[in-house]
Amino acid sequence: MPRKPKRPCRMTGCPNLTDKKSGYCEKHEKPMQRHYERFARGYRQHERYGSAWRKIRDRHLAREPLCEMCRAYGRFVAATLVHHIKPLGDGGTHDERNLMSLCISCHEKIHKRKKPS
Prior knowledge:
alpha+beta, two-stranded antiparallel sheet, two-stranded antiparallel ribbon, about 10% strand
């Protein structure tokens, strides 16, 4: 049975041909898979935040129901997220002093992300 012809590698400037499903040659397949796993997929939230975090988050939102950044500017906006002031990856904890109630807009500003459209 005839096979499909090989296609050029999806990596810009790579002259190699491939018949792999990913579209990358052997040289570029693993680095691109690592890039995809790290940046495109994001992290698995349930691995970092479990049921204990959900309880802490709910308790903090009940205690601080308004966005703390908006309240500092005289606006009263309901908080929907709890932000770690010092990130967990940098040694932060779920301690109340390290948590901040925020609306989505303020949380995106802190992380300098644009709102998905």
